Amino acid sequence: MKINPFANDFGAEITDVDLKDPSSEITERIYQAFLDHQMLVIRDQDLNPLEQVAFTERYGTLEWQENVKYAHPDHDKVLILSNEIRPDGTAVGVVDAGDFWHSDSSHHEEPVKVTVLMSVRTPSKGGATDFCDMYAVYNALPEATKQKISGRYGIHHASKALNPRVKISENRPGAKEFYAKQAQERPTVRQPLVRTHDETGRQALYVSPRFTLGIEDMDDAEAQPLLDELFSYITDEARKYHYRHYYRTGDLVLWDNRCIVHRATGGYARDDIRRLHRTTVVGQRAFYKA
Ligand SMILES: [Fe+2]
Question: How many Å lie between the centroid of ligand 1 and the Cα of residue 252?
Fold first, then answer.
């Protein structure tokens, strides 16, 4: 197995390994590379949904799947992300999933630690995922901003209907109703603005334009401009802390949601099919330790 780190050690490509039934030594080396580089692109894999589940389970308990409608028929903890529409007009998977910057499931009390995507079909154009290094963003913040946010909590919620910073996709059948229902039924969740990684001990900014709606015990007049300042590092056109991944079929990509935010970039035609299979490992509660 070869590990080729990207620039600044944020992200790495792994080649010459088969993840169908890897040894425990390989599993551990991959996890260490994941902690060191935050995201990994493991080339030339061909895992079916059950094999992907078996691989993902080596790193912890799989997260429950709330979008059961788009689960894979072979395993209910594999979520299909795809723009494919059946002849009857129903979607095969989640269309336009993750189109705004976020950390997976930060709206859960125990958010996702690892996300695994298996690239099954690649469109001829577009379909990339952007990643942003939130250790680097935290380090880049002015001292005064770090002091302002340390020990404070962001308010997170899953529903796009509650968030003026995002739009609901027109391409996803039933999305408006889905988010309206979610806004009614789901509680808000508080997460530390600065998150101490439970395994590396490093500090990362833990907010996103997609899920962070406000700051606990702070008026919006003060909180919203502060969030805009924090989000500007993520949405910065200079892309100083970023990596954009264009998938090849057979890429297995995994990343650490404790120190990365990501988004789908779209840019493919509706009939140019993209398909990814997603599995996620639930982590522990986020915390901040000075
Ligand atoms: Fe995501």
Answer: 15
